[in-house]
Design a protein that fits this description.
By secondary structure, the chain is mainly α. The chain is built from 20 helices and no strands. Helix 4 runs antiparallel to helix 5 and helix 5 runs antiparallel to helix 8 (129-142).
Length: 425
């Protein structure tokens, strides 16, 4: 480490140590005020050594690249601590909202002599991936699933629905520089949100079944007195919800559920067979879910077959193995959902939903994840890419994606979570 880097590192550590010490003894309101003074106002901070360290960091030749990571870590020092105390969690969105003041302050600094580097860097931070993940985290902490239900205006941005989809948290609430501690916190929040959704779903389904049973026996007047109101925890209509649940846990092909079909497929997949033979079997396994014969035979089946034929074709004569399974399934998800976040081409996904509907399209994805559980995070990443791509679009403008996200939530919860609605079979 050269002298310059050593000095820069020392200043960073001074900044981190400062917040680590303060967060243990000061209340959130005081800390937020300090944050505003140091990073937004940029003047009058009571600890001169900390202000000087920040000035030196901002004035360094690497500031344009490094400042967003340093500021992000300062934020997370407070967030990580507050997240462990339920009474302090409400301060997290307040801290993140402080940066909304940055552009206004920036204008004043641009006109003042000798100033501009810190406000400029803070303003750049508000356009970074790090700040975007903080904003999403604020939404998750601020809103429960009930806050973003079907009664919310459809004119709101898709991004406001992030609390509803715990399976996206890992990819939407963490950035490349997230620490292990941040990852642990997001994992904990994800588990809590997932558990709450599964409880809400179980209660609602049981409630609807009981409601139907009582309605058959009693008049609507007595029924109204006997049954409490429980809200549908999804953004799907009741018919859509129960159709989806019966698809994901019920019999879909003959007497078999998706899980049973996957079990039979993996049991028959042999390391003695060639990779080419495995791909042929995989094709047959997948197209059995394309119930619209005209769509399948006219277009999709041929596309899927060519995709599989071209996947790792140089390995066709090798014996099938787990590595080839994972690679094949991940490339299938690229093809079916989206591949690159840079140029997110997802024509096939939209085409599938347009022709098969969101539920059966999700069933196709579920079949892949059930035979290769290791690609489940990969599917979640694909959907996170689409979520990020359409995040600023209105919900009413991407109804197809909202229905897909809701269906995936149900499919993953009923097949990988602890919710049990098998009585619907």
């Amino acid at each position: 480490m050269n002298d310059y880097n050593r000095q820069s590192h020392e200043e960073e550590q001074l900044l981190y140590k400062h917040w680590l010490e303060l967060v243990q003894r000061e209340q959130p309101a005081e800390l937020i005020s300090r944050f505003r003074t140091l990073f937004i106002h940029g003047t009058g901070y009571p600890d001169r050594s900390v202000a000087d360290a920040l000035e030196k960091i901002a004035g360094s030749e690497h500031a344009e690249q490094e400042f967003k990571y340093i500021l992000n870590r300062c934020c997370h020092i407070l967030i990580n601590r507050w997240q462990t105390y339920p009474s302090k969690q409400a301060a997290i969105p307040e801290l993140i909202a402080v940066f909304e003041e940055a552009p206004k302050i920036l204008f004043g600094y641009n006109r003042s002599r000798g100033r501009g580097s810190i406000p400029k860097l803070v303003n750049q931070f508000t356009e970074s991936e790090q700040y975007l993940t903080l904003q999403r985290l604020a939404k998750v902490i601020t809103h429960s699933n009930e806050d973003s239900n079907s009664k919310s205006p459809a004119s709101l941005a898709l991004g406001t629905l992030i609390p509803r989809y715990p399976y996206l948290y890992r990819h939407c609430l963490l950035s490349d520089d997230s620490t292990y501690e941040q990852q642990k916190i997001i994992k904990k929040i994800q588990a809590q949100k997932q558990q709450q959704f599964e409880i809400n779903l179980s209660q609602y389904v049981a409630h609807q079944v009981r409601k139907a049973q009582i309605a058959r026996r009693e008049t609507s007047i007595s029924f109204g007195r006997n049954i409490q109101v429980i809200k549908n925890p999804t953004l799907l209509t009741d018919p859509e919800l129960f159709f989806a649940l019966k698809q994901f846990v019920g019999k879909v092909e003959g007497a078999d559920t998706y899980r049973q079909l996957a079990g039979r497929f993996t049991a028959n997949a042999s390391t003695n067979q060639s990779y080419r033979s495995f791909k042929d079997d995989l094709y047959e396994y997948l197209i059995s879910s394309v119930t619209d014969d005209r769509y399948g035979k006219r277009l999709f089946n041929e596309k899927l077959y060519k995709q599989l034929q071209n996947t790792l074709a140089h390995s066709d004569d090798q014996n099938f193995n787990e590595f080839l399974m994972i690679r094949t399934c991940s490339q299938l998800l690229n093809f079916l959902v989206v591949e690159s976040p840079v140029r997110p081409n997802h024509f096939v996904f939209i085409d599938l939903i347009s022709n098969l509907g969101a539920t059966q399209t999700t069933g196709l994805l579920l079949k892949i994840v059930l035979i290769c559980g290791k690609v489940k995070p990969y599917l979640e990443k694909r959907l996170a890419i689409l979520f990020g791509h359409y995040e600023c679009s209105t919900r009413e403008g991407v109804v197809w994606l909202v229905k897909a996200l809701e269906n995936v939530n149900l499919a993953l919860s009923t097949n990988f979570g602890k919710v049990d609605v098998s009585f619907l079979r």
